């Protein structure tokens, strides 16, 4: 059976300069794992028994980044499933999109991560080594920009 995990793509909007585009004020939160290849990823984790997918995404975000559900706004209309093998077994990761209510809220990492970055799309794609993650970040960005 496929391993199932869920997470949130978290973004914040900085105060844009009057001349800049909305797209330029969006930054994405990526966390660097403290294990393995130290890859960068949005907060995510395995579904616990009795939990639904969205509960898992919020719980993992709280555990890994110290962010409460009340500090985030879930963005309607975006949900993405990624499928890839991990150690030869299929894995499904479901992501939702959430905006920080206060862009200055402190991030508090768990032991699972050693660093975090708020990154504009181009840099987020450089940090996220996997093609499907890069494609998802670009898709999210387009989704957000099309809503303006």
From TrEMBL:
Residues 1-141 form the Nudix hydrolase domain. One of its GO terms (molecular function) is nucleotide binding. PANTHER family: BIS(5'-NUCLEOSYL)-TETRAPHOSPHATASE [ASYMMETRICAL], DIADENOSINE 5,5-P1,P4-TETRAPHOSPHATE PYROPHOSPHOHYDROLASE MUTT. Its cofactor is a divalent metal cation. Belongs to the Nudix hydrolase family. Keywords: Hydrolase, Nucleotide-binding. It catalyses: a 5'-end FAD-phospho-ribonucleoside in mRNA + H2O = a 5'-end phospho-adenosine-phospho-ribonucleoside in mRNA + FMN + 2 H(+); a 5'-end CoA-ribonucleoside in mRNA + H2O = a 5'-end phospho-adenosine-phospho-ribonucleoside in mRNA + (R)-4'-phosphopantetheine + 2 H(+); P(1),P(4)-bis(5'-guanosyl) tetraphosphate + H2O = GMP + GTP + 2 H(+). Transmembrane segments: none annotated. It holds the Pfam family NUDIX. Signal peptide: none annotated. It is an enzyme of class 3 (hydrolase). GO terms for biological process: AMP biosynthetic process; ATP biosynthetic process. Coiled coil: none annotated. This is Bis(5'-nucleosyl)-tetraphosphatase [asymmetrical]. InterPro entries: NUDIX_hydrolase-like_dom_sf, NUDIX_hydrolase_CS, NUDIX_hydrolase_dom, Nudix_hydrolase_domain, Tetra_PHTase. SUPFAM superfamilies: Nudix. Its EC number is 3.6.1.17. Catalyzes the asymmetric hydrolysis of diadenosine 5',5'''-P1,P4-tetraphosphate (Ap4A) to yield AMP and ATP. Exhibits decapping activity towards FAD-capped RNAs and dpCoA-capped RNAs in vitro.
